[in-house]
Amino acid sequence: MVRSKRIALILEDDTTANRLTVQVLQPAGYQVERLRENAELKAQLQADLPNALIVDRSLSSKALRLLLREFPTLPLIYWTTQAQPDEVLNRYQEGFQAVLTAQEDQVQTLFVINRAVQRQEDWQKWVQLESTRHTQSLEKRVEDLERLHRIGGKISASLNLDQVLKEVVIAAVELTDAEEGNLMLLEQDNGNLILRAAHSVGEQKTNILRVPIYDTLLGEVIRTQRAVILESSELTKIQTAFLVRALIYVPLVMGEQSIGVLGVYNRQREQTFTNYHQMLLEALADYAAIAIQNAHYYTANERERHKLHTILTNVRDGVLVLDEEQRILLINATCLEAFGLNEPDCLGKPIENVISNQDLIFMLKRPASQWVKGGEIRLEDGRIWNCQLTPIEDVGLAVTMHDITYLKELDRVKSEFVSAVSHDLRSPLTAILGYTELIGRVGSLNERQQEFIRRVQASVQGITALISDLLDLGRIEAGLDAHKELIDLRPLLRQSVENFNSFLTEKGQKLQMDISSSIPLIWGNAVRLQQMIANLISNAIKYTPKEGKLGIRMWQEDSQLILQVWDSGVGIPPAEQPYIFDKFYRASNLPEDISGTGLGLTIVKSIVEDHQGRIWVESTLGEGTTFTIVLPAAEMETPQHPST
Ligand code: ADP
User: Fold this and answer.
1) Which of 456, 478, 454, 466 has its CA nearest to residue 426?
2) Which residue in 234, 244, 231 sits closest to 272, CA to CA?
3) Which of 96, 114, 133 delimits the end of a domain?
4) Ligand 1 in contact with 599 (CB < 6 A)?
5) Residue 625 in contact with ligand 1 by CB distance below 6 A
6) Ligand 1 centroid to 616 CA: how many Å?
7) Is 543 in the pocket of ligand 1 (CB under 6 A)?
8) Average pLDDT over the chain, rounded to an integer
9) Same domain, yes or no, for 40 and 122?
10) Interhelix angle for 161-176 vs 275-314, to 10°?
11) 272 and 327, same structural domain?
12) What is the C-alpha to C-alpha distance for residues 583 and 215, in angstroms, rounded to an integer?
């Protein structure tokens, strides 16, 4: 149903209002409504805007301003009984669209009203058209921006550079409504631009593959890092045999450098490009530059990763990397071969589920307080590897393993040789010592001769001690002291301490014993265990100054017996601590008058290992040293050689 047009009246005189309504407006098909100037006027008009409003002088100027401001398309007609030309002019200046007087006849009055209503309709149509046009253009822009956004997303998600560049060019062509587009990248070595991606809507194909940039428009874009828009009604030759009517070139910039150009062209169509198109293209060029940078990083990263992988896979040493939960992150071929594993099977699995070598697992699973930087492990095939454990922040732990079987073998041969020679040296030394004692009996000696003989005897005793250490070591290493029995270490400890009482008194030292009440039995060789304790106590006494403190602690922890021998002596320089268990090694900080063979700790370590135990040292220079030995308790361990 077509709604009839409405005219609103704000007139003080009822007769005038009635006359207008009955004689002019209603016969012309208008609906008429009387309004008043009051607080609701604005709301009433907003709810249902009439096609025109006829007012008289009763309308205040404040209300007039409100109407003009809030309802600019509402035609306002001024009604007056009669008007001088001056007044008519004033009303027009105030913003009224027409002035009606009582003098006008009905036809004239209706004509004025109709014209005002018509004007309003024309305006409204125009406003509607304009807003549709703007909305369409805004919608197109929103679409363009969404397209840009989608491409941005794809770029960060894709590592396929060719595909990304192709997408950028297609988007460039479509967003600028061009016939064709391309993306060229600069070749570093010769300064040429080479085509990387192209797209065209029609039949035409860009044939350029490589363009020298000197003296070309492209060269200018590269040099100035500025976009260029070219438009002409004529065809312009921009390169040999490449004619265009309009184009945009925008540079691809990475850091400070131009790396290429993104271009769109119209060769047939006369349509030109705008700044808006340039802005879109610049955004696309930025995306392309980011994609290229990503690809560079990725390739560099991949190359490094590949290099590292090749190195790790091919090194002859074993390499194993564990995460913080000790799951396998990386394992190289040497390790796989040594533990008889298959790489894909073991990656990501906990180490203890994959590798059965107990030496290695024991080393890795030690509680934090007993953590070691490395040690030796024996493989099933008899090879011996030296393992180094290196914690890596935010990754876990790297284990590097080096085959030292040949060193061990050399060591064994050397020990055998030393044992044999030592044995043969013993008898002549005993003879020398015997004869030096006899010299005094066959004639009197002066003081200097006696002094010389004392020195000979001291030296021979030194050599004899050395030889007996060497022979002990030889026996232990050769496994000749295999006899083991259930042993309570407490009486052995007490016996050893007693043996050193005279030395302790001589140096005024105090030895503190902290032995826990429940100590497990262990499977062991009594003579060797006593030797182990004696060597440690003797060192503690030797390397602690007079009046110093030393002590022994012993307790049980789970199925292990822990023995500590500590002192408040000279300590061991940190850099030398890894070597003190080596044969003949004596630290550099020892007072000159303290003699020794450098074999005591080697013997201790051999005995500990012969009892499936571990030993380590903690020492602070000038403050003291603590040796800790962990031995397995007999209750938990099946003896290896219980009765041999
Ligand atoms: P040595 O016969 O020299 O005592 P050891 O093999 O028993 O040989 O010890 C090797 C080296 O370790 C010693 O020379 C000394 O430098 C160092 N060392 C051993 N025990 C202690 C200790 N309790 N305090 C300080 N240094 C020690």
Assistant:
1) 466
2) 231
3) 133
4) yes
5) yes
6) 13
7) yes
8) 87
9) yes
10) 180
11) no
12) 79
